[in-house]
Amino acid sequence: MNDASPLNRYQLAELGAMLAEPARAAILLALMDGTMRPAGELAEIAGVSAATASAHLKRLLDGGLLGLHEQGRHRYFRLANDDVAAWLEAMALPHATRVTPKTAPRDPMLCRARTCYRHLAGQLGVALCEAWLHRGWLRANSDGMCLLPEAADALVHAGWQAASTQQLLHLHGRGCLDWTERRLHLGGALGVAITSAMLDAGWLRRAPRNRALLPTPDGLRRLAALGVRIDP
Questions:
Q1: b/e string for 199-220 if b means 16 or more Cβ within 10 A?
Q2: Which of 46, 65, 92 is the last residue of a domain?
Q3: Is the pLDDT of residue 142 over 60?
Q4: Which end of the chain is more exposed for a tag (fewer CB within 10 A), N or C?
Q5: Are residues 221 and 114 in the same domain?
Q6: Residue 99's closest CA among 38, 49, 47, 40?
């Protein structure tokens, strides 16, 4: 899809052809919740072989409906952008039942909050990243993600030390795909430093036997004041 010019009849026909294939429609439906999924999982959802799914995914990528996120050796597929999701919702799939994959039982504490390469992951990590991007406190650029002065001021107001908070402005982070939420949380040096500061401030504490991080009641209240909320 190209926002620079309106669709001509041939482009519209191609989009219609992509949606007309049930397996491709199932793949798009599975990704309309904003998650990123590997090819094998999408093949299972669509009920096709890995080779067939690969061909469908290539066509959807070439057609501009999907984007690709590569993390190490792993490849994850997502809708290309919010415009594609809105277009699918409004024009193509308004009454379809969304398809979700069967997942193995997971430790709810690890799903809620945990460390990932020393930075915050899980529901809380994703919520923080999305909330601060939405507020304009985080900015994505060619170097990754950076914290803006407005965020530093808010963190000082929330009780963090001014000197350590100012140091965050000189660090860069990166979007890291969360394996339980299938959305991005904040990784890299900036993510590590923010997580460490939350531990030092008593907003989080470490679980004794695994990678889970336990938000304290005070931490949840202070994070909520900073726009970061998760279900109790």
A1: bebebbeeeeeeebbebeeebb
A2: 92
A3: yes
A4: C
A5: yes
A6: 47
Q: How far apart are CA 67 and CA 62, in angstroms?
A: 9
Does the residue 4 lie in any domain? Answer: no
How many angstroms separate the most distant Cα atoms in the chain?
61
State the chain's mean pLDDT as an integer: 87
Least confident of 124-128, 139-143, 168-172: 139-143
Distance between CA atoms of residues 139 and 131, nearest Å:
12
CB atoms near residue 184 (< 10 Å): 20
Residue 136 CA, chain-centre distance (Å), reads 17
Does pTM top 0.85 for this prediction?
no
Does the structure show a pLDDT above 90 at 90?
no
Residue 61 structural domain: 9-92
Predicted pLDDT of residue 77: 96
Written as one letter, the residue type at 121 is A
